[in-house]
Amino acid sequence: MNNNQLVTYCIADELLQYEFGFLHCDGKIEVIVINHKTSQVRTLGYCTSLTDVVFILETCIQYGFQEKGMTFKAVPGYQFNRSMEPMGV
Questions:
Q1: pLDDT tens, residue by residue, 3-18
Q2: What φ, ψ does residue 64 adopt, rounded to 5°?
Q3: CA-CA to 48 of 20 to 30 Å: which in 6, 24, 54, 67?
Q4: Which residues is 9 bridged to in the sheet?
Q5: Where are the domains of the chain?
């Protein structure tokens, strides 16, 4: 049994000490945020398309969030405007 799977990580945007991105594996996408100041990593949602990734990221950044001890203050009017190029993991 082979448990090796290729996982691709893509940085979507960086705001202050936060890095927003997603992990892609076997058609499934996990949208995450990393707080580099505290080394916390939190899942913001799951989806299956890049369109959904953009929706999740824009919504979380525009309205802010509190996720298991990580708080991000809203950035009203934020719009995602970068191409998402994958990085090998």
A1: 777 889 999 999 999 9
A2: 75, 170
A3: 67
A4: 23, 87
A5: 8-76
